[in-house]
Amino acid sequence: MFKRTKVTDGTATGQGPDAENWDGKEVGFRKKSKVPGVMITQYIEKLPEGKSHPDFTRKPIALTIQEGKFAFFKAIVTGDPKPTVVWSRNNGDVSDPARYQSKYDPNSNEHTFEMPHVKPDQADTYKCFAKNEYGQAMVTVVLNVIEVGFKMTKAPQQQAEVANCNFKKVLKRRSKVVPKAEEPEKKEGEIDPKFWELLMSADKKDYERICAEFGVTDFRWMLKKLNEMKREREEEQAEFVKNLSDLKPIHINADGTASFELEFDLLDPSSSIYLYKDGEMIPYTKELGDKMKHCLRKVGRKYIFSMRDLMPEDAGFYQLDVEDVNMFSTDFKMVDFLVKIQEVKAMEREDAVFECVISAPLSKLMWFGKNMPLEQGDKYDIEVSEDKLIHRLVVKDCMVVDKGIYAACAGIKSCNAWLVVEADKGAPKGKKTARKTTRAGGSGTDLQKVAQEQQQILDKEREERKEKIKAAREAAAEAAAAEEPEKTADSGAGKDKGAAVKVERIDKTSVAATTTVAGDSGSGHSAGKASGGAKQDGSHADAGGHSAGKASGGARKDGSIADAGGHSAGKASGGAKQDGSHADAGGGHSAGKASGGAKQDGSPADAGGGHSAGKASGGAKQDGSHADAGGGHSAGKASGGAKQDGSHADAGGGHSAGKASGGAKQDGSHADAGGGHSAGKASGGAKQDGSHADAGGGHSAGKASGGAKQDGSHADAGGGHSAGKASGGAKQDGSHADAGGGHSAGKASGGAKQDGSHADAGGGHSAEEASGGSRQDGSLADAGGGHSAGKASGGAKQDGSLADAGGGHSAEEASGGARQDEPLADAGGEPGITSGLSDIHAIRGQPAELTVKMNTDCDGAWFKDGEPLKSGGGISITKDANIHKLTIHSCRDTDSGLLRFVSGDLSTEGRITVGDVPEFDEDDLHKFSKPVIVRVGQNAAFKMPFQPQESLTVSWFKDGTELKDGGGVKIVREPNHSRLLLRDCLRSDSGEIKIQLKNPFGAVEATSQLIVLDRPGPPEGPVETVETTSSVIEIKWNPPKDDGGSAVTNYIIERQERGHSLWTKLGDVSAEKTSFRDRNVTHGKKYSYRIYAENPQGLSDSLETADSIMAGIMILSGPPGKPKVVSTSKTCINLTWTPPEDDKGVPIIGYQVEKRKKDTNQWLALNAINEPIEDVNYAVKDVTEGAEYEFRVSAINESGAGDASPPSAMACAKNPNMRPCFKDPEDFLVVRAGNSVRVKISYEAEPPPHITWLKDDEPIAPWINVINTEGMSQLVIPSSKRSDSAIYTIKAKNSVGEAFFDVEVRVTDEPKCPGPVELEQTVYGKVAVSWVPSPDQELDDRLYYVVSQHDSNTRMWKTVADRLFANTYTAHNILPGIEYHFRVYAKNDMGLSDPSQSPTWGANSNRVPISSNGVSSMEISFERPPSILVPLKVHTPPKGYQLYMTCAVRGCPTPNVSWYLNNTCINSDKNYYITNSCGVCSMYILRVRENDGGEYRVVAVNSLGKAECSTKLTVRD
Question: Closest Cα partner for 572 from 556, 593, 590?
Fold first, then answer.
């Protein structure tokens, strides 16, 4: 378990906890290390010269190790004086020497912390501190210990965790994507869960590719479901992270690793991060250099997952989770090459083409040339076909230097080929040929055909997936249809919870009106499907829902259809009628033309509600009547057509920029103007028989009102979305007057009923007030959920039928219609309430007044909670004409309640709530008003207590701007107090801090001040020079603009003499004085000054003089002596001169040198005046070979450069004559036969020499090329043969002399196998193996032999002898009864030959009988003194390379071998690895150093004598 270290932020005194340091000292200066993760604290601001604080050049690396192993951390630290290194751990001590050991190696400067036999309890976070007197450096490292085996102490603990239901620690963590091994069998056509995970982490531009890959074709369904899943996932992610961004899918890097990355901030730094591959958790490390395959690094906010050593099995589905929530998913696929790139041979200045075909589409391959990545540019063209299967690399304008190996990489798969560029022999020498227009190369196959075949395979796989998904959906749909019984359209198919009697809105801000008469679902703003409810009497049920899905009418019990007046982004169509007629398609928002379908009786269907850019009209019916044109959204005029029987067609729901109205019917039938979305006026038509005239659902920018009826029947103004006023009508019989669903900007209220029954104002979403109408019996008129921005009320009816004003969308006024047989309810003919009651909040002890305004002068009564009220007891009731007032002189808690005013059949009500304005305690207010003073970088905290209250809003302000929680601001709200914390305060944070408490009764504020102290700003410049003489300089400045919050106490002045780097403090002056006189100056010298302002918080930044100020007047030195040319070369001319005779009494600090080229008049300075040459000689390197120059010199003192010296003599930039000499040539070269030989020799000579090459002291053959350039000669043999092996001599000769150098060139090939092998036994247990030499032995003196042995026991071949230069070998330990075989190989610098096989040596074959007669074996002595069989050879390895040095020694008894370097024994030196195997003595150096050069000697000693051999080792740079 890892524990987090608690870090305490520094805060102001009295405002929070003090900051603590680990050693209890004052905090120093934080410095940045070059090594990430190192924290450096410097104790002093400015370090002394040559001193430094501690730092880590190598920090310890996190370690995961098995229990019982040897664990250690290593660190290298620097610092002057030398730091002291201390190790510690977070949870425990490291004082036990048996478990913890600290060591230091002075040779490598490594500090080591060792833990032998590491235990699980040692797993912890360790710290390494390096400290000296100037600072400290600290770094942390984590040790994880893997436990081995079952622990008896762990079993009870795990059982306890299970008993405590702590399953999180017990169960193995799993990803939401099931591993392949545990994945259940998929149903036919089922979509892989990876599809959704990939979409949620992908860019929108990749949606189409992912859908095509998984066979998904329904993009609308996919996007809808994806948005739902994204919302859920974002809510889960918000619990652990914030600012999730920059998701980059996995890709292959140039170094061969794969990585993906993303950025986010962890809300809790201790949250765990998990990685999964195909649903299974994978371990990872935080250091890429560790031995683990996977790594997760954090760089700032960015998290980078890397994977090295890629293999084909690394392909899979990778996920990154924080705790249990997925943050990112990506798919890693492997791509193979169907056609690889081929070798290209191109002529010089011709384009070369490499092309390949891959197995899966890929937008980009990685191309490499000579191990360097290639990009699109002037030299290279990278082309990709449209199907992304064919990839090409074009190397433009090939030159000889472009030849080499080129490679194409797709993930871990790659292919490479050579580019061979041949020189154009026909081109004239010394001239550049024109670029060729031809291309060389290509794959030689029909790439397009291969790509088409592969594309067909991919398309076939994709189509198969699509067909499976389609078939699965069709089967699921058929199964669902078979299971469910036949259903009518009583409630629509969306998410609306509509019913025949009651309809509820999904919108949380409103509830639709409910009634037992009509089942309207008008104006429902639903995200699903909005449909009308079924009415019990079969009358019309409107479905004016604003739905993002499909809006359709409900089914009626009498067979008629419920209108579908829904605002749908999909398709609006009518439902099926039981009598066979077609359902109306009212209110559908269509981008085209909405028309009714064909009815089963032959008449056309209604085209209601289509949102059309043209004109929406009804079709012609076969019985002569005209089809309805209801709800058409037209830019013109939507009206009903004329019917053949004389009646007019409906113009219901037309969304028109003009006027939408219903037509008049001659037979008195229905003329609807319902749902018209008009910019003009939408009203219902007049009916002569008194039937229904609807003005429902009109979305109008004008006025939406119900039609007038003669018999008092229903006049609806329903569904009008109005920015004006929507009101219901008044009923005389007390029946329902609805004002439901009006979207108005004013007030939504129900109509007035004479019998006191309910007048609903349902559905109005009002920005002001939604209230019910007044009743004569005192009952409450409901104001339920109206979607109104204004006032929505029902229309007036005289016969008591329903007058709906539901859902009118109007920009003006939607009101109930007036009937021809009765006067209009709102026109003043009947009493009405023009200004009713509303809910108010009254302050305890303060007066409150409620007012009701009528349209006529009439009496009224006041009620509180159902009880009548009269004047008296602190209450006054007055009446002034049509204005009724209720006054409470001093509000008390008992005055709270529901007040209602009743006048006749009219009533209005409002609730009064008595309470207090929030207030602060005086002591808390006094304490809060004190200023809070903090220093820059500290935290400022404010706290204000208050009494707990309901509906209390707490806000914090700074300088009038409200503060929000987040960033450096932390706001905490508790029931009885609130706290404000400002982290890491800056000087700009100073200002007024205010807290505001607000409730419905008022607000109260408290103010404090935040003062952030800081160092002052720099003094204001520029620095003015008041006076300058030979002994005094006086300067002046201005005070700083910002004093840092506290007054400036004094100014500090420092001075720097020109030409020096040291600043010297001259003194300080008080804050009142802003000038300073410097009396310690030297005449003629220049000085710079800088001024600091100081306050109690510290020093400001400095104000520095723009230019140096000279003391007195300028005194220049005399001219130096004439320069002399010491030596010349083509790159440098050396000069010398003498100092001036007269320096005018001012010391000379240096010289300035100028040059002038011959035949020019301009002198050019070779050094600036502020960079003087301190010596009297100078090497001029800015010269052109062969040009002539003259030079002059000026002396520089404090006043500047003096007079120039006379010019020098002309000097030519050319080398002096020089005998040829060769620079670091190689004297030996081995080349395989058939390859080209290139011998490069660099030389120096002046004048240029004549170069001659010889082969074995004879002129070279004409086919051998010699290329001579300046300073180098190259011998080239295009196709070498063995006969080209020789000693080649280069001869360089000029007028000064000549030089020779020999280079041995060895042209060889893989050797031919040796001849027949013979076996012979001369001594028991030993077999002599001999063979005929290889034919190449005479041609190659570096050829040697290797012998392998095979026996019937082990049945394995093993090498028993190597580097044999003889043709015999004696095999030892040859046992009877075992068969032996021997193979002999010839080997040289090119490799092994084929083996020569020996005959079988067994129990009864090839034995030589040994005679028992003669000399006894006991009399034979094998003892001999040591001898060197193969001596040491000369070696000249480059520095840093490895080296093998061998020799062969023989002797009996076995001699003791010692190695010496420059007469010093190196047998015990760890830098040399020395072995002695069967007389073959070897010495190995891993990396050759400069001090490894010298004379090496091998000495072999036994009791009979001594033998030695030696060689020299030369180390090259």
Answer: 590
